[in-house]
Write a structure and sequence with these properties.
The structure is a homodimer of 334-residue chains.
Chain A (H helix, E strand, L loop, with lengths): L3 H17 L18 H13 L3 E3 L6 E3 L1 H11 L7 H11 L6 H16 L2 E5 L8 E9 L3 E8 L4 E7 L6 H15 L9 H10 L4 H16 L4 E4 L1 H4 L8 H12 L1 H9 L6 E5 L11 E10 L2 E11 L4 H17 L1
Antiparallel strand pairs in A: 1-2, 3-7, 3-10, 4-5, 5-6, 8-9, 9-10
The first copy, chain A, binds a DNA duplex (30 and 30 nucleotides) through helix 2.
DNA sequence: TTTTAGCACTCTTTACTATTGTTTGCTAAC
DNA sequence: GTTAGCAAACAATAGTAAAGAGTGCTAAAA
């Protein structure tokens, strides 16, 4: 357990480092941090904090830099909600209040807003459909060999997909299928569109398997591939001093370019709403040198998409988390 | 007009520079370029090519680098179609033959393929819908205050959008609207969904304007916002030596982050199929230090999307163009 | 016992210099 | 018209010295 002054020193170092990106010297803390003691005393505290693993040094005679343990302690114990300015509040409100027809657009707008306000890069992923409840399925014939399937879920999510057939299909056939699918699926979670449905339909349907098969295949495909990743403000990261290192910049672009990593990163949160991963805490090797804060957008416990902020370990956690909390509150009001 | 040997020298310099990214010395050209003369002779030729603006020097005693005029001459006059390897042909074929249900997916796959084969960053944009002919419009009621509109065009493009109402809507109303819209729009280009339609519908429809208005508004919005940009292989560019310059890297990320620039870039081609923009030839200031090759995917003169390769001015134009030509042929076969 | 001033020591950063190597342009010979 | 040879220009590299920032330790002060 850290005593009061050590906490203050740690907090001061973390915040100073977040602001300046330069190793923090004992001298720098004697002013403007409410620490009423000399640099020598602070040096002693720093030495001990380092011994306990909260701080790192880049070389023997350099200032201190927070270690991952230091950041973690800061996030868990020392974080105070940052005030959001009036302009920011106005900006956020106006953005979130734009009328959207599709939930995924709302997630994108939210990602966009968070990125704009925090000045970090944001990514988002669409809702996980699997456990949403099917409210309605509609099949629409387009021409004679193409159909669109539209699934409406309890959270208002609309998922549509196109299905092509190898033979002509009649309006009658579409209607029968529509009836049967609805009959079987209405009120069921989307993931039901897997095994059991298939057997049932093959048994019941009297006409060509050529018609039902592509429908089932495509629907199965669609419910699995909910990896609709959206990226916002990649360039913002490039203004940060850590991106002067080509290696960092390259790794970053590589991460954003690898959808699997981004999807993994967004889907791997335990907490209900906000998750913070600092450096090595990330499950993805590629992210070991970055920090990630994710925010799950939910309504009635149902996933409506997840937004993630990715930046240097020296991230302004306080700002990011405050903004997310505020946005969460705003979204709940809608 | 350049004499034969000058052409050879220019071509050799361009190709050598494309390969090595290092200024090309007179010595480097004496071997392996079919130039049967000494370095001194080549130096004379180089001096003259420079005087005529085809070559640049980075400093008094450096090798030569092609100028933009040099690249342009190379692209226009000296380009020879590069062979595509058997593996590449196989790869391209297998990628393009994957069954897709939506045209935009095909464009994405094509962009992806070009990026993989050329090792450059690719972007793509969906089809311009405006001049496509409406074949069918279907309205589907989802719940009581939401509707999906599906537009099918003559090129097989399916465009769908969700429309929300402020009051309950009946199936009957949907059907009436569907009939009227089809009546007015079938066989017309999509852009018809603007002024004239509106007047007609307001006149004819007997029931609430609250129902028709959102439909028209949303449809108008959809046909205008066909800026569905897709990015592939951003990280590939970062392996190129020019991206060791932080400024270049940053500019590049900025470009890819600015959808308007990318959209502009993809939409600004005069030629029927393949357009090449070298450095300053780009209409967008941000692209002055890059080269862009775009490829329009068309069927029966109708736009199905455009794919662009963006890379350094020292781009392997020959490879890129050859691959695009081959893919174009392949696409036509489908 | 805790805090602080003072100072030696460590290490980075910057500027400067010398050296090496590459490539050109020019001249004169072929 | 072509080429060999050579001086000059310049980049790149390595090495050195000086300056600056910051720590850790010691001993004195509180």
């Amino acid at each position: 357990m850290l005593d009061d002054r050590k906490k203050k020193v740690l907090q001061a170092i973390v915040e100073e480092y977040i602001n300046t990106a330069e190793p923090v010297s004992s001298n720098a803390l004697t002013t403007n941090h409410g620490l009423d003691c000399s640099s020598a005393t602070i040096r002693n505290e720093m030495a001990e904090l380092e011994k306990n693993g909260y701080l790192d040094k880049t070389h023997t005679s350099s200032g201190r830099v927070p270690s991952e343990k230091g950041y973690r302690y800061y996030v868990d114990e020392l974080l105070n909600d940052k005030d959001i300015s009036l302009e920011e509040i106005k900006y956020i409100s106006s953005k979130l209040e734009t009328k959207v027809n599709e939930i995924e657009d709302l997630t994108k707008i939210t990602a966009n807003t968070i990125s704009e306000v925090t000045h970090y890069t944001a990514v988002s992923i669409g809702p996980k459909t699997a456990n949403q409840i099917i409210e309605d399925i509609k099949f629409v014939l387009l021409g004679s060999r193409m159909m669109m399937a539209v699934i409406l879920t309890d959270t208002g999510l609309v998922k549509e997909t196109i299905i092509k057939f190898d033979e002509d299909v009649t309006q009658k056939q579409i209607e029968t299928m529509n009836y049967m699918f609805n009959n079987k699926l209405k009120g069921q979670p989307i993931e039901t569109i897997d095994r059991p449905l298939e057997d049932y339909l093959y048994d019941e349907m009297t006409y060509s398997v050529n018609v039902i098969k592509p429908v089932i295949e495509q629907l199965k495909k669609v419910i699995k591939e909910d990896e609709n990743i959206y990226l916002e403000g990649a360039n913002k990261s490039f203004d940060l001093p850590e991106f002067n290192s080509l290696e960092v910049a390259k790794n970053f672009v590589n991460i954003l370019d690898t959808k699997e990593v981004v999807a993994d990163m967004l889907n791997s949160g335990f907490a209900e709403d906000i998750n913070v991963y600092i450096g090595d805490e990330n499950k993805q090797d590629e992210l070991k040198d970055f920090s990630v804060v994710t925010f799950k957008h939910k309504v009635n416990g149902k996933d409506l998409g997840t937004i993630g902020i990715i930046g240097p370990k020296r991230m302004d956690y306080s700002k990011v988390i405050s903004v997310m909390k505020y946005i969460n509150k705003k979204l709940k009001e809608l």
